[in-house]
Amino acid sequence: MNYTGKFVLAPMVRSGELPTRLLALRHGADLVWSPEIVDKKLLTCTRSYNSKLNTTEFREPNGRIALSTYKPSEAGKLIFQMGSSSPELAVKAGLMVINDVDGIDLNCGCPKNFSVHSGMGAALLSTPTLLCDILKSLVQKVGDPNNKPISCKIRLLGDLPSTLELVEQICQTGIKNLTLHCRTRSMRNREEPLHDYVPEIIKITKKYNISFIINGNLRNRLDFFELQQRYGPEVGGMVAEGAEANPSVFSINPVPWNEIILEFLQICFKFENHPSNTKYILLNQIPSKSKYYQKFARMKTNLDMLNLAKELQVDKDEPLNGKIKFRHLQKERLQTIEQYSAWKKEVISKLSQDIENVSLGPIDFTKEFSDVGVESSEETVESKSHVTDTNTSTTKITTKRRLSLDNTLPHKTLKST
Ligand SMILES: Cc1cc2nc3c(=O)[nH]c(=O)nc-3n(C[C@H](O)[C@H](O)[C@H](O)COP(=O)(O)O)c2cc1C
């Protein structure tokens, strides 16, 4: 497991469930973080294998799924994020999950009350001894014995010396990666991240041979190119809200919103994602001005949402179809493919380093997830749906068109020199 120079999906409670992670991986994310799960909650869960979906599940006593992983796509790429304020509980929870994930990350950045009131998340930034004790325990008792990396995600402190002192302490715990959300605890995501301390932090992480990932308002792979151009090809980039709005932003050719929701809903249907979670994420992906926004908001099942998504592909009265959705400091931006291509050309022309192709990941949608329950196959979706033959065939053509576009313009990454 190597985090160096990777472009990754951020941990996101609610939004970073299995369908978002699978879609991000399909479109070029190198690694994906699970949503934060608190150690105490994980310890109440029971692990089981779901033979229909070929997933490994951790279920709470009330039957709710706390974590579900689909290893054919996620193996080697899934980082489990934990909330903790206790070295002992962190170790217990870590041992429970370590065989099903590829690394464990400690959340030291969440400013929400439910986290900080019990000493977790961003509260750990004010208790560095405890923070480092948790990391050391995880490294020595969970990571090292299982040959898996431990990492942590922090925010900036209020000034440079205290931030650097904290980073220095964290880097001595044996972790393999540090992610910095480039905002302070009191800053909101609509505010521009601060990069002033980044060069000094990079020096420290390099001294300890620890990889470094930068997080904060990266919209897409073009922003990641520019980040690596500024700080070197070894830095990684992590995207949260940008990927919540469009999980294909990891690709150099992100997908228009109408196509991404179709892919997303197909995955939600196949993996029986909870419909309220499906809807929550879907409404982040739909332009707020689309007439479909309210229609989806009223729907109750994955299948109904999937059928409506199929219908809207061929709706000539939806002027937003074909536009790519990005999010910039919590504001929605829609671009035509031509506008995005011009942006891409401009960014690539400014890069001093070579760009090399990286693999596309699975591109044959017909084979992808073919081991997942027969009952949730594409045929069943179509036979149960009210969509006409014409709509269905148009949907398929759309998917093929985009794939051939991806084939000619694969994901690219900056080449290390
Ligand atoms: C819906 C949502 C859920 C989040 N959940 C987590 C979480 O579980 N753990 C965490 O460390 N950060 C969490 N975050 C913070 C993000 O990982 C990220 O640090 C932050 O959004 C800044 O990145 P961005 O500017 O790319 O959005 C969450 C953010 C959002 C929008």
Automatic annotation (TrEMBL):
<feature type="domain" description="DUS-like FMN-binding">
    <location>
        <begin position="31"/>
        <end position="304"/>
    </location>
</feature>
<dbReference type="GO" id="GO:0005737">
    <property type="term" value="C:cytoplasm"/>
</dbReference>
<keyword id="KW-0285">Flavoprotein</keyword>
<keyword id="KW-0288">FMN</keyword>
<keyword id="KW-0819">tRNA processing</keyword>
<keyword id="KW-0520">NAD</keyword>
<dbReference type="Pfam" id="PF01207">
    <property type="entry name" value="Dus"/>
</dbReference>
<dbReference type="InterPro" id="IPR013785">
    <property type="entry name" value="Aldolase_TIM"/>
</dbReference>
<dbReference type="GO" id="GO:0017150">
    <property type="term" value="F:tRNA dihydrouridine synthase activity"/>
</dbReference>
<feature type="compositionally biased region" description="Low complexity">
    <location>
        <begin position="388"/>
        <end position="397"/>
    </location>
</feature>
<dbReference type="InterPro" id="IPR052582">
    <property type="entry name" value="tRNA-DUS-like"/>
</dbReference>
<dbReference type="InterPro" id="IPR035587">
    <property type="entry name" value="DUS-like_FMN-bd"/>
</dbReference>
<dbReference type="GO" id="GO:0050660">
    <property type="term" value="F:flavin adenine dinucleotide binding"/>
</dbReference>
<keyword id="KW-0507">mRNA processing</keyword>
<keyword id="KW-0560">Oxidoreductase</keyword>
<feature type="region of interest" description="Disordered">
    <location>
        <begin position="376"/>
        <end position="399"/>
    </location>
</feature>
<dbReference type="InterPro" id="IPR018517">
    <property type="entry name" value="tRNA_hU_synthase_CS"/>
</dbReference>
<dbReference type="GO" id="GO:0006397">
    <property type="term" value="P:mRNA processing"/>
</dbReference>
<protein>
    <submittedName>
        <fullName>FMN-linked oxidoreductase</fullName>
    </submittedName>
</protein>
